[in-house]
Amino acid sequence: MKGSAPTALIIVCMLAVAVAIAGYLPSAAAQATKVKPGGDDDLRAVYASPVEVAEGKRVAETSCARCHGANGISATKGVPHLAGQRAAYLHLQLRAYRQSARVQSAMDGIVRFLSDDALIKVAAYYASLDPPRPVVPSAAKAPPARPDPVAAGKAAAAGCAGCHGEAGISKTPGMPSLVALDPKYFVAAMNAYKTGQRKHDVMKSMVAAVSDADLNNMALYYALQKPARAQTPAPGDRAAGKAAAASCAACHGDQGVSGNPATPSLAGQDAQYLAAATRAYKDGPRKDESMKGPAAALDDRAMSDIAAFYAAQQPQPLNVRRPLTIAEWTERCDRCHGVNGNSTDPLTPALAAQRADWLEQVLHAYRTGARKSSAMAAMSALMSEADVKDIAAHYARQTARAVTYVVVPPAK
Length: 412
Prior knowledge:
The protein is an all-alpha fold. It folds into two domains: 5-139 and 326-407, Cytochrome c-like domain (Cytochrome Bc1 Complex, Chain D, domain 2); 149-311, Cytochrome Bc1 Complex, Chain D, domain 2. 49% of the residues lie in helices and 2% in strands. A two-stranded parallel sheet has the order 1-2. The chain is elongated and about 90 Å long.
């Protein structure tokens, strides 16, 4: 029939969709996604035939079931579920193991002896299975949300305001500002008071009972406050101080704004405190080899001038981000991995109902570079240990959804 080819193609596609939906009616969660076949091996597992899936089952039973389970649901810590995972993604990962792009001794020995055809079939087989159930019933409550670390830091720092000023901006001569200090430096300084490396009886008694978690939260709180100069007098010759401070810039940065988390910024700091701290490095109460030499060459006048110069400089905001909540993290993850971790992209893994210990292991691998992905490395680098655990637990609790890929013939 001339002129009827487009109509026939539409009917074929509609029938394919209808069959696919009918096959998944018992699972109202099934989703349909169209995939166009082509010459690229990356998608071959998506449109494997029923015969190939059956052959993949035989491969899985002999090579994979011992670790991943006969039904693709792992009962072993650190071994992922494969059931219901996206076929093209599974095939890509199996190829990566065989090509040593991913290294894992147990996997390397197995895939080394399997043909690419066998890898395609076994990937298609596992993708055809019912996905695992979430680790807890859907009605179960999620663990309580972690408290906002900035609010917790503000509460923990309430007793500091009397000396160091609201928001860490000093109004008392001799008392340092705490604003614009890098969190790593702040925590190191507080621990130095705790251990006695820094000699100050009042500070030692103040921080003795402060937990590591509270110290980290306080450091974050002060780092995120709007920086301003200490509201204290700064006697001394600023011009002379600028000249005398030339050698300080190598560590403390131009204009006293440090680029090293381990070295404090001096811009806007209380002048009397700066002079006293420099004198302590010179006389010995404070121990730091990098400061001892430069301080030894300064007399009291030079210390006062340098302190006046730095006190007059404008402190700058730190490149410190407010931590994301788990809801914010998972919203970002869902952009690629699908709503609640149910990917509809055949090349992107589903995360829903996956083992939490496996998800933690994978995130750590991206953080350390053991697994390579520029996007995942950038995401995971910003996660704390608590974030990793909470994100993994979140996706392990989600209900996994089956996805049906309908093969659409290429246009002629």
